[in-house]
Design a protein that fits this description.
disordered N terminus, alpha+beta, five-stranded antiparallel sheet
Amino acid sequence: MTHQSGSRGPVAAVLMMLILACVPAWAQHASPHASPPHGGGATPGAGAHQHLDGRFAHNQYYYNRGYTVHQPPSGAGSLGEFRGRDGGRYWLHGGQWYRWNHGGWVIWGAPIGLFIPFLPFYFTTVWWDGIPYYYADDTYYQWNAAQHEYEVVTPPDGIESGGSTEGPSGTGPIIYPKNGQSAQQQDKDRSECHQWAVGQSHFDPSAAAAHGAADAGKRNDYYRALAACLEGRGYTVK
């Protein structure tokens, strides 16, 4: 038995050397085709094929237009597949739009006129002429009251230079992070809780203000849901 075990030692060593020699070549070949780890928005820093979107102090990293993957990322932050007016297949993840094109998913411009049920996790509210627009990765969204969804829209002339992230004064609760959450974590929690509260109350206060709607009952339902969500994540809401 001892002789047989010793005879396999050199063979195993040779096989291991061959495997280790192949690993770098495999990794180098596979990495250009791997799915992005986050697909924009949640990416902590610049990486290959990425850029920083600093417009309106949005300050999130996204993959460059034209970058192609075999399959788009899934999981948290993914809203799934949509069909554009042009008949194309689109995928939205973390504010980043992909389009199916010749056997791969390509980072693409958002399809104007398409409706989505929720905003991306990371978005920036931009006010223009008293109306809120929601911005992420060179894309503008607006609440469509008739559709009860957010619509990808063409940005109005002037918003690029004159839009403001400061909304009307005196709106919304005061939120304090009890657990020392970072600014990035606070933005993420507010975005997710906003989406959840809109879904629970069927009311979006920003959209309602823009369209002149006034429903005190639904507004209260929204803020109660928002407060419950944020308090559950370690915030004080007043």
